[in-house]
Structure formats: C-alpha cells, structure tokens
Structure prediction request, 235 residues.
Amino acid sequence: MDRLLKGVKEFQLNYYKEQEESFKALANTQSPEALFFSCSDSRVDPNVITQSKPGDLFIVKNVGSIIPDCGPHWKKSCTGAAIEFALAALSISDIVVCAHSDCGAMKALYKEPEAFKDTPNLQEWVNTAIGAKGGIDAMNDEPTFKKLIEITTKEHVIESLENLKTYPIVAKAIKTGKLNLHGWYYDIGNGSVHTYNSDSDSFDRIAYHHDEQESIRSHAAQVAAQGVKSCTHEA
Ligand SMILES: [Zn+2]
Prediction:
C-alpha cells in the first residue's frame, strides 16, 4: 500500500501539475470518445493500450469483460446502467469490448464446480459467458490449453457484441447509424490488439505500416502537448 500512497503524492506533484489546465477543464464535464469494456485483470489498462488520457474513455471493468444480455435477471446490472448512461447522457458513438490473453475468467469456464465452493458469486458471474465454449465443442483438433483459452476468449468477444445488441438503447442507436460496435482481443505478452471483422469472421491485427511511424510519433507528441481535450457533456 505504501507504493500506492507514494504514487498519489507523485501524481499531485508531477502529473497533475503538468496537466493542471486539462484537469480543470475536466472538473465539471466529460465527453469520452468510447464506452470501453475491459477485464478487471491488473495487466489490462485501456488507457495504456489506446494511449488515451483521463476524459477519453468511459470504462467498465469487470471480471472477464462480460456483458450479460438484457434479460430480466440482469435488470439491475451495472453493465446495463453504464450502457444506458453512455448512450443517453454522453452520446457515445462507439463501444469497444476488449478481452485479453490468459484471462482467468475464461480459464474458469473449464474448472470443475468444486473449484468454486468458496466463490459462488464468481461461479455465477463467469458462467454468464458459458456460451463462448459452444464453438469449441465442435472442433475436431485438440488444441493446447493456451490455444483453447484464446479461441474461447475470441468467441466470448463475438458473443458479447451480440449481447450488446439485446439492449434496446443499443439496438436503436445501431439502427439509426449512431453507434458502432468493436470487439478487440489484446495479447498481453506481445502487445498486439486484434479487432473482430464480421465480414471475414476473423480477428485482424491493428498494426501500423512502417511509413506511418513518423506521423504516429508526431501525433503522439501533439496529443501530449495539448493535454486532455476540453469537454462538452456533463456526467
Ligand atoms: Zn480477464
């Protein structure tokens, strides 16, 4: 805990001081670019992956980056609340569902029920994503466990995108062309991010070309110099 407390002091002395104007601009308003679903896993940081800053992303972190469908059982879910707030109050135009490699929630789908004797809430929650195992059963080859988890996780992303569409506010926004859904798979070990392509039913790596390097670097420097952008919506 000492390290975290020291970090708070460092934040106030350095980061905040350098970005003070940007934080003041964010004090009463926010206008994030996207609603971003991510796993609670400590290794997955949406702001790091997307090189974004406070105010840029409306983030929901939960175990497994799971989006239950909009059934009666989930009427009071925080997921539903976040979706509705992001669309109704913040006019979000993009939703990203980002799953990741080596996800404990996906691994938990393959554990025996006895493994959850002390964690019934965890069991019930991860079982919400049990449908992701559906595609695996149909496989002929026997994949390694690591590969099995990767395939399951990608299926889970696709299923989550479908579950998102069961929320009336999402379905309506898609129908009127105001909302785009994105499914991502983040590989922690090599830093790659893959986005789901529904046309080819595959995940394509988001990669830069060599001739883009300079413009990406200069854009990053520009963003750093500008600080957090000014905002127009209230939370
Ligand atoms: Zn995870």
In short: The CA atoms of residues 75 and 81 lie 9 Å apart. The two ends are 30 Å apart (CA to CA).
